[in-house]
Write a structure and sequence with these properties.
The protein is α+β, with helices and mostly antiparallel strands. The protein folds into two domains: about 160 residues, Jelly Rolls (Sandwich), CATH 2.60.120.10; about 120 residues, Homeodomain-like (Arc Repressor Mutant, subunit A), CATH 1.10.10.60. It is about 50% helix and about 20% strand. The chain is built from twelve helices and eleven strands. The strands form three sheets. A five-stranded mixed β-sheet has the order 1-3-8-5-6. β5 and β6 form a beta hairpin. α1 packs across α12, α6 crosses α7 and α8 crosses α10. The longest helix has 19 residues. It is globular, with a radius of gyration of 19 Å. The two termini are about 15 Å apart. The relative contact order is 0.15.
Length: about 290
């Protein structure tokens, strides 16, 4: 399995769309740490709120909001309250095939546009098909997928240079590399000085730059990433908590349990017992962080 926060969303050639129910994800994984992928992701917020960090900016999304995460943009989200929405990931290679200039555009949504409600209707229909899926539901989703893309390309496409966005391409590219490096080497003694040297920073400059862009300190971010992978092992393996702590780079079992409780509000062992009947959440975790 490839580690990294570059998600490799492996989509079937015959069906280049993945849908993840936020209701399912939230049960065991309320926070998805900072990552990036080539796929374009549509977040459709229903039910409770979502805190979204995207390329250096924090947004508070409410019921009914739609947010588009463009290819290669680092992002993270955390669920608040009861969830009913979904994430839709469109495979990059598929988008590149149907619209070769996809790298040169952005989608900028306008709620006042005549076609915005058309987009919402297609998202609602897709979510309904997904939740009530029959044996051939992919056929219906195909239709809605093209409806969504047609609406976006026809009505909300702007040239990249003209997009009124906060995206910092320089920082995005730099931190894609840094995020991927951390996710590849997180079990190791990954000191701030080691990362700074790897990417040509002084320790002080890297510490300031990381916190300014990522909106979180380096040490806290590294702990979150280790906890993310530790949570997977807690749910998916029979390893002891001590073995998981060692596997994921924690100094000792005590610090692992302390940090785990702070994020998941229970001990790792209790979390394992609670997750036995939540296999669909595990499937989401695998797909979302190991897919193209």
């Amino acid at each position: 399995m490839e580690r990294g926060v570059y998600e490799i969303n492996r989509m079937s050639e015959s069906f280049p769309l993945k849908i993840f129910s936020h209701r399912v994800v939230q049960k065991m994984n309320p926070k998805i740490p900072r990552h990036w992928h080539r796929s374009i992701e549509i977040l459709y917020i229903l039910g409770g709120d979502m805190t979204l960090w995207v390329n250096g900016e924090t947004k508070n999304l409410k019921h009914g909001d739609v947010e588009i995460i463009h290819s290669g943009i680092p992002h993270e989200y955390q669920f608040v309250g009861k969830r009913a929405g979904c994430s839709m990931l469109f495979a990059y290679d598929f988008l590149k095939e149907i619209y070769p200039e996809i790298d040169n555009i952005r989608f900028v949504l306008d709620r006042t546009h005549d076609s915005y409600q058309k987009l919402i209707k297609a998202l609602d229909t897709s979510l309904h098909i997904f939740h009530n899926r029959d044996e051939f539901y992919n056929l219906l989703l195909h239709s809605e997928m093209y409806e969504i893309l047609h609406t976006l390309l026809l009505n909300f496409k702007v040239e990249k240079e003209a997009a009124p966005e906060i995206y910092s391409e320089k920082y995005a590219e730099r931190y894609k590399r840094i995020i991927s490096y951390i996710n590849e080497h997180y079990p190791e003694n990954l000191t701030l000085g080691r990362i700074a040297q790897e990417f040509g920073f002084s320790d002080e400059h890297f510490s300031r730059s990381f916190k300014k862009y990522m909106k979180i300190g380096y040490k806290e971010y590294l702990t979150r990433i280790r906890l993310y992978y530790a949570r997977n092992l807690v749910v998916e393996s029979d390893l002891t908590m001590t073995d998981i702590a060692n596997e994921c780079g924690f100094g000792d079992n005590k610090s692992f349990i302390r940090d785990f409780k702070e994020i998941y509000e229970t001990t790792p062992l209790q979390y394992r017992f609670r997750s036995k009947d939540s296999t669909s959440v595990v499937d989401y975790t695998k797909a979302h962080f190991t897919t193209n």
